[in-house]
Every structure is written in structure tokens, then in C-alpha cells.
Amino acid sequence: MVKIICTLFLFLCTGSLIAQETLDASDPSNFVIGGAQGFQTFSMNLLEVQIIDVEPEINNTISFTVDPSTLEAGLPVFAGAGGAENEDLWLNITSRSANLNTYNAQVYSNQPVPAGFEIKIEILNNLSVDGTGDTGIASTSEFTLSEVPSIIITDIARGFTNDGINKGFQLRYTITNSSGGSLPVGFEVVYELVLN
What we know:
Layout: E1 2-5, E2 18-21, E3 49-55, E4 84-86, E5 90-96, E6 103-109, E7 117-123, E8 132-138, E9 143-144, E10 150-160, E11 169-177, E12 189-195
Antiparallel strand pairs: 1-2, 3-5, 4-11, 5-10, 5-11, 6-10, 6-12, 7-9, 7-11, 8-10
């Protein structure tokens, strides 16, 4: 609606009028839009991303200490009381899947576990501590490490656990070393995400 406002001296308003414009915001057809309008289309092609790592990242080497109360003369170290345990490591996951794909996390060793050794891995929490999205469901059963992959987390889709210790999935390693030997040089525990 446009209103023309003049002073009382209408006869003096010969060449100039004061105008006030009022827009009714409830009716978009009343809007005055100046200039040209345009639009820009774009597309994003996001790749699938699957990342898994063990934290703390700087040194995720596992150390085991021997509890003297479990030692007994005549028995090998790490043989008593079910072996030695370590719960210092956390598994972190980031996943962006496409087409509703899901992934599994698996674990295996890069070399045979020497005779006399037994290494067991267990995830202590079946859901991620912290994080967002579908970070999977972990089995809380113990897995005996070997070169044959064991699936430890299923149904990983789109999500992330956040980064660092106390995030994601807490790992418990239990080692029994009845032979008193050492692991071979370059021995590694491998975690991997694979398409379900």
C-alpha cells in the first residue's frame, strides 16, 4: 500500500510529494525485490571413508607388568592367575559409508603367534564411549589372536567415535606366555575395517 502525505498547505506541494511505502510481510506478492535474481547449483561427491586406529597414537605399544603375587617357583612368568592384562588402549573409528553400506572391524596378527603364547583381545564396552552416528556394535567376547581375522565390531555405517583415549572402544589384552619366549621382531596386531 502506498500513501501520499502532504502538509496542510496542499497548494505548496506542486512538484514534490512525500511518499511512505508500507509492505505487508504476510503476502510475498507485495515484496519489492530489486535487481536480478540468480541461483547457482553445485554438487558434492563425497568419497567413502573408513579409518580405524588404536590410541594413544604416539606409542600404542603394549606393556605388561608382572604381579609378584602371581609368580610361583617352577612356573613360567605370565602363566599364573590367567596371564597378564593391559587395558590402556582404545579403538577409534571414523566411517562415512555410501549406499547404506555397513562395515565390520576385524583383528588379526601379521605373523603366527609363537607356540607357548596366547594373546586374547576383548572389547570392554559393546557401544562406543562418546561419538556420533552408527559406530557399530562390539562383541564383548574374548578373541584369541591369530593370523585368521576375527570380527570384533559389526554394523559400522556413518559416524565417528571421537579421537583419543577414553573414546570409542576400550581394549583388554590378556597374554599367557607358558614358554617364556619372546614375540618375533615386527609382530603386530592389525585392526581393519571391511565391507559387510
